[in-house]
Amino acid sequence: MWKLLRASVPGSSHVKAGTLCQDAHAGTSMRPHGESFLVVACADGAGSALRSDEGAGAAVAEFVKAACELLEAEAVVTPEIVVACFRSARKAVDDRAAQLEVPKRELACTLLGAIVGEKQACFGQIGDGLIVVRENDEYLPVFWPRAGDYLNDSDFLTDEKYEETVQSMQRAAPAELALTTDGLQMLMANLNARTVHQGFFGPMFSSLRQTPDPETLLAPLRDFLESPAINERTDDDKTLLLAVRDGLR
Amino acid sequence: MPFGGVSFAENPDPRCPCVLLLDISSSMEGAPIAELNAGLLTYKDELAADSLAAKRVEVALVTFGGEVNMVSDFGAVGDFRPPLLQATGDTPMGAAIVRAIDMLHARKQLYKQNGVQFYRPWVFLITDGGPTDEWSLAAEKVKSGEAARAFAFFAVGVGGANFEVLRQISVREPLKLDGLRFRDLFVWLSNSQRAVSRSKTTEETPLTNPAGPDGWAEV
């Protein structure tokens, strides 16, 4: 099946301001109808939205739940199922906003999701962040975040016309993939060349590949995400989700 | 250390450009220009004290008093040397606004050529009067620039500033400085830019209301 390692840590500016971590992640592996699947998602709540931690949490939980239900019904991977999962996630965020009695923009968040079967995989992304897959011996970004003019322009799942800005695609199933919110983007990608920094992902995946028990890497991962080397470069919330197909060397 | 071998991508820091557009016409003579000069020093010190903002905020300074003068072009906060401004001449505000917008445009081109990410630029105008030159082109450029989200234009009026004209130039409601609280204004400006320079995913960084109880603006 899959080895999964995932963590979110609050950014140093959020710690200082006493605000919550507004990133969220979710993931599971399953075997409906005899085929193995991995379903993973992460989301970054907008810093300017009051309850974006709730939005991010609802979005990732619903993405994974909706994908599992669809796969239980029919174990096929198509770009349509990822779009359907985004629609469910959006509805979950809307419902949560209604429960909390706040406008839905107060739950503004990005969303990145992947559904990986044995042969095929599909991916979706709205807003900043990166999905990275290994193809042959290279780590590649699945999408490049849709470029707004400015750094502080982002697309959100809660946007009125979010369906126009969701990117989705199908490709061959990778054996290794990573999802991350934009807190780490500057450290793991060369923004000008639009390439992924191999030296970031190589050692990460190597550790996960070699461990018999991903749980043992959780504390080191959190320490790494909170290390001074990283906090010198970003003070945003950070999420990293890594998955390696088990049995691969 | 499981992740000891991880290395990081090197990217230039994203930039947060701002043009200060300052009225130094002869009516600013005396206490106003002295307070403005003191405010500029505070502004520089506040930004320089914040390591992330110091790397990201880029300040340019254009004055108008008798003539339009680019006192300093965009550069890092550390390189910004607040000059001792002296009051002189009339108020060519229209030409100054056009100049500031042209400078921003050129700066953005430079960022794009070099793959530097940037935040939405700011133009921050401070005046105690009204334009003595033709200002309709300036007003038009501010309107179209705001509509295209090319920049955010803020106008602050001091004392007897011509708010009627400022309202026709600025899409955002012009603010009225409470007395000569230039220093508080510049502290607010540096705080706002610090907040913007570390924002990443926010569509609009919420600014504290300068007309709030402790603010520098009159309601």
Task: Explain what you see.
The complex is a heterodimer of chains A (249) and B (219). By secondary structure, chain A is α+β, with helices and mostly antiparallel strands. Helix content of chain A is 33%, strand content 28%. Chain A is built from 8 helices and 12 strands. In chain A, strands 1-12-9-6-7 form a 5-stranded antiparallel beta sheet, covered by helices on one side. Chain A has a 5-stranded antiparallel beta sheet with strand order 2-3-4-5-8. In chain A, helix 2 (52-73) packs across helix 3 (79-100). The longest helix of chain A is centred in the first third of the chain and has 22 residues, at 52-73. Chain A is globular and about 45 Å long. By secondary structure, chain B is of the alpha/beta class. Chain B is built from 6 helices and 7 strands. A 7-stranded mixed beta sheet of chain B has the order 3-2-1-4-5-6-7. In chain B, strand 5 (152-157), helix 5 (163-169) and strand 6 (175-177) form a beta-alpha-beta unit. In chain B, helix 1 (31-48) packs parallel to helix 6 and helix 3 packs parallel to helix 4 (136-147). The termini of chain B are far apart.
User: What pattern of helices and strands is seen along the backbone of chain A?
Assistant: EHEEHHEEEEHEEHEEHHHE
Average residue-wise pLDDT of chain A: 91
Count of helical stretches of chain A: 8
C-alpha termini separation of chain B = 57 Å
SS-derived structural category of chain B: alpha/beta
Count, helices of chain B: 6
- Please summarize the sheet with the most strands of chain B: 7 strands, mixed
User: Which parts of chain A are unreliable, with pLDDT below 50 for 5 consecutive residues or more?
Assistant: none
Helix content of chain A: 25-40%
Structural class of chain A: alpha+beta
Share of residues in helices of chain B: 25-40%
How much strand of chain B?
15-25%
